[in-house]
Design a protein that fits this description.
By secondary structure, the chain is an alpha+beta fold. Helices cover 54% and strands 14% of the residues. A hairpin with a 7-residue loop joins β3 and β4. This is Peptidase M41 domain-containing protein.
Length: 196
């Protein structure tokens, strides 16, 4: 498990790429992020917008994208059935975390502790990737017998987000303003940004 960090939170073992803070507590993720309420809302918006735009780019039908500040979960996306490559779904799952991390860096608020908190906050996306997998996968190890691990999926998401970032930014702005977006918002954004 070279490079991974193991932490026990609420009787659950969690493996993270970022080094955990010394005072790990799941209930303190908001504090570890060191963001005010508006910034936390924006982080959720970029997380969900990244999921959605990577999904749309892969041809996965997105139905709704929502953020609900102060609730748990604080955001989600619904999408239709998909028979394409599993790696597209898994990359979509990884895109939320990568979008949040990219946004933190962009606004100058990224720290190792904040990165860890954003990673843990997105941990359910790893479980979703595993649950959908039809190929060998290890989302928390560097096991060389698997085709994909979480770092690889994160790198694929980063590649897609590098191209899609203007559209992610626009969708996040819609989510920040209205709390929700649907299919009508997505094609317009893709066309506006010159995407296929």
């Amino acid at each position: 498990m070279n490079g991974w960090h193991r932490v026990q939170i609420d009787n659950e073992t969690i493996w993270t790429i970022h080094r955990p803070p010394a005072d790990v507590q799941l209930g303190r993720l908001h504090e570890h992020l060191a963001l005010d309420d508006d910034q936390h809302r924006d982080l959720d918006a970029y997380h969900e917008a990244a999921h959605a735009m990577v999904a749309v780019d892969a041809g996965i039908p997105v139905h709704t994208v929502e953020i609900r500040p102060g609730q748990h979960p604080s955001g989600w996306m619904t999408y239709g059935s998909w028979t394409g490559p599993w790696v597209d779904l898994a990359t979509m799952c990884a895109a939320g975390e990568q979008g949040a991390l990219r946004w933190l860096r962009e606004i100058g608020r990224y720290t190792e502790t904040g990165g860890w908190a954003a990673e843990v906050a997105a941990y359910s996306d790893r479980a979703a990737a595993e649950a959908m997998c039809s190929e060998p996968v290890s989302v928390i190890t560097d096991d060389p017998t698997t085709r994909h691990d979480w770092r690889h999926l994160g790198a694929l998401a980063q590649q897609r987000l590098a191209v899609l970032w203007p559209a992610v930014h626009d969708l996040a702005a819609t989510l920040i303003a209205h709390g929700t977006a649907g299919p009508d918002d997505l094609p317009a954004l893709r066309h506006h940004q010159g995407l296929p």
